[in-house]
Amino acid sequence: MERGAWSVERGAWSVEREEAFARAQASVAQDGYVIASADNANGVISTTQGVAGSTARVPYNIVVAEEGAGSRVSLALAFGTTGGMVLNQQDVLMQFCKTLSAVGR
Q: What are the pLDDT digits (tens) for 82-92?
């Protein structure tokens, strides 16, 4: 179990930015995250997920950006815990993989 924040920047895929944004947003919503805000113009998705047995919420943020010329995108993902929370790093990495996979399909 670990505490703290995790982030990854990954890309690029040959997909239009708007399509990548929609795929990422749909993926996290299907995984039970609450979309706090989704700013398509800036490519930012802010989500939270509840913590079992607590009123705390864990943030998961996604930035979808155009990568160079053409229809390539990159993603920046950030996931963090708040004071006293611990979780399995493998679970965080699995969520990152699910989001990246949804965009790259």
A: 666 666 778 77
Sheet holding 5-14, edge to edge: 5-14, 72-80, 57-66, 44-50, 34-39
Looking at residue 80, what is its pLDDT? Answer: 72
Q: What's the whole-number average pLDDT of the chain?
A: 77
Residues 22 and 66: their CA atoms lie apart, in Å, by 14
Give the C-alpha separation, 28 to 49, whole Å.
10
Q: Residue 81's Cα: distance from chain center in Å? A: 14
Backbone angles phi, psi at 96, to 5 degrees: -55, -45
Q: What φ, ψ does residue 60 adopt, rounded to 5°?
A: -140, 115
Q: Count H helices, E strands: the chain?
A: 2, 5
